[in-house]
Amino acid sequence: MEEQLSALKKLSDEFDTIGKELFDSCEGQLFPADALFLASCNRALQVSHGFTLIVKNGGYSCGVALLRLQLDSILRLYGITITHDAHDSANKVICGEKLSKIKDKTGKRLSDGYLVNLLAKENPWLTHVYSLCSGYIHLSDVSFHHLLNKSEAIPESNERGFYIGSDESEIEIKHKLELIQAFSVATEGIQEIARQWAAQRHQFGKNKNLKKKYTRLAK
Q1: Which helix (H) or strand (E) holds 160?
Q2: Which letter, b or e, does each residue of 167-180 get, where b requires 16 or more Cβ atoms within 10 Å of its Cβ?
């Protein structure tokens, strides 16, 4: 496990380079989509740090919940890039509007389910992992089964002894390794889409035009 977490640390360190690439690509002039991408990279780095601490200390459930946060960043970043105006969509999100109320170029609302289905066409694993993570975010059957796995049968009876606690040693090591792998893949996904934005942001409007629009909005 130490080897996998060390690899994740090196991967997370790449956010520093990606942040500089984003700054360079927008020539120091941050507009809504640029700011949202930078904010997502910042959050992804912080989430990665928290994930490492949790898993190192034997945690699992909270680690899965943090994986869900990484997936959320991928969905939202991808979502704004398939709208008619990425900066306008990002600005709405920054101002508090729900992404699910915004429509893509085909007129479909950017709900999580819709975005998962789109991305799953090239990433089939996403559907299962997203569903699994959601089970940890919401109080569901997953929480019950975790409690059940902690229970112990009482000899010569049909009863079981239950206890609650933060210890998750009942989770097999293979599942924890799979979690680290999934988290690493999700983190790479955020980095990939951020790099794509840095390389292609010029297609979403020239800086001089964006400056006129968003300077006016700021007044």
Answers
A1: strand 160-161
A2: ebeebeeeebeebb
Q: Which amino acid is at 182?
A: A
Task: Report d(CA 142, CA 175) in Å as an integer.
Answer: 15
Q: Hey, what are 70's tokens?
A: 């990484």
Distance CA 136, CA 115 (A): 20
Q: How far apart are CA 193 and CA 188, in angstroms?
A: 9
**pLDDT at residue 145, as a whole number:** 75
Can you give the pTM of this predicted structure? 0.87
Q: Which value, in Å, is the radius of gyration of the alpha carbons in the chain?
A: 21
pLDDT less than 50: residues of the chain: 217-219
Q: Report pLDDT digits (tens) over 66-92.
A: 999 999 999 999 999 999 999 999 999
Nearest alpha-carbon partner for 82 in 190, 204, 209: 204
